[in-house]
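pinning this so it doesn't scroll away 📌
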Amino acid sequence: MRLDELPYRTPATVSAIDWTILSETDGKRLRNLGFDEGVDIEALHGAPFGKDPLAIRVGRMMVAMRRAQARAVSVQVEAMDLAAE
């Protein structure tokens, strides 16, 4: 599942990032913010009507990112979170 598809308030882990679809500047920004495989992540909320930006928790930090950037990030929802619902 891509980060832009992750339901809000659902903890997940970054499984892959497609660096090739990001600009060099966007890729550098995401790396500097701690985006990498294995990082805990959670989509907190987005702008009304499905617009930018998304508020994302990365580790203990909250960042804003565009949906186009979020499409490059693949996430894996933890199985125990799905079973709890």
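📌 and the second one:
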Amino acid sequence: MKHLAHQTTTPLRPWLRFAMPVTILALAGGLSAQVAGNANSGYKTEEGRKAVAQGLADPARDQSMRPGQLTVEMGLKPGMTVADVGTGVGFMLPYLSKRVGDNGHVIGEDITDDFLGMARQRADNQNLSNVTFVKGTETNPNLPEGQMDEVLVLDAYHHFDYPEKMLAAIHKSLKPDGKLVIVEYYKREKAMPGGRALTHIRLDMPDVIKEVEANHFHLIEEKERIRDVQYMLILERN
């Protein structure tokens, strides 16, 4: 794991250099418009969400994502309070629950009732007594203010239609020494089958870091989790 301060290990691709002025203008303008239309197109209908849920619940994700190891990399400890923003079908909930233990607390958040229902069912099936749920919105995950030790955004940052507002709300939910953990796909041809990441993912890692740091966070760790596919960022509040 690399400890960084305002730097990354990944050189900018030529296409990203051309995209940066747009990103900078968007940051300056406050990102008031929906920006994740492409990524969210498959979530507009119940049928679309069911199709997405099949992939999210695929047992093969356990091997590729190494969710138990992720909780270690996050630095989670027994007794902590952690939120899983964009929990979907609740893939991470059993692992987060085990890591924080009986004295810890896990909050699963999503913006749709059907995803929350699937996540609740998973928690019930596995008797996860330290897991509760909250329904968020496109602009606010509705987490309790100042109570989170960590907030995890796993493969969900590219779905934020209003990243500035979401980051502001997450910032408020964290304790003074709380951490934001973003696990995300690279915006690169190999990151998703068929080159899908080039259209599905809004920003590659360097611009994700710039956007989040522009909203009162500071990067403290960066790591590649799946070669050429997925990375992890850990940020603290400014």
